Amino acid sequence: MSYKGRMEKRTKKRKKRFIIIFPLLLILLSGLVYGSYLTYKAMAAADQARVELERGGKSDLREEVVDPGKNNISVLFLGIDDSESRGFGENARTDAIMLATFNLKEKSVKMVSIPRDSYVYQPDRDVYDKINHAHAFDGIDGTVNTVEDLFGLPVDYYVRMNFKAFIEVVEALNGIKVNVPVSFSEMDSKDNAGAIRLEKGLQELDGEEALALARTRKLDSDIERGKRQQLIVKGIIDKAASISSVTKYDNVIDALGKNLSTNMTFSQMMSLHKYATSGDMDVESIEIEGYDSYIDNTYYYELDEASLEEKASILRQHLNLETQAEQAE
User: Is the pTM of this model over 0.85?
Assistant: First the structure.
């Protein structure tokens, strides 16, 4: 095999394991649970976590409801900073926003991270503002509507988790291994400044340390921050896939059920597990280009319009939406 061929094979292998967002761990666990007890707990956790959108089960951009087991779908993943110390409650801002499209025939996933300071139109308030303010003012529904308007495609499902779930899951796994890219200090989950100090290099992280690496913003940019979050999620999934203790799965399911909300049913989550177990699955990360901007002395991240439209077109094609639109003309 040529050098180019070996590199392409290696790149493809990395992409298969490059699952970006933490809630996909729930999908992984749904396939790993065994025995009536864990299955029951997983179903109960999913039922506890289920919160329907105000619009009901169908996006206004869909002609009919889509089923993950039969159709291509999109899922919006949201990480929320609703720590007790900050007291935001239901008005918490989104700290991580990722949109994923799932193509059933290809068993492929495409994901794009949306920087939290992105300057976008928010239809529920009819204003341009930081995208993380959509949740603060209009909750999940406002964020879903904003993302649909931004990409011009339906958001079929959402998964919302908070920082507490992040910490508890890592703790339930007895820590994760991550190659920390840079030495830094960061506040802990209770906002104690400088409470967490990490050195560069491969090491075992506990829940607070993993959260510090995921949330720190002062090192560089939201784009690089997204890449660090990807490292952590990979560490979580690698650890979850390797453990054999039923007790650990039990604790992870408890952590997710208490700190996660979604409009997906347990059977729909189980349908998505087909992607994780497919030998040919390809998971690709997509990045929207942009630049720093100040409007009325407030910092925003301006998304490059050409890059945004290009990436939105890729996601629409992945859902076969543009093909359907062409056939309808």
Answer: no
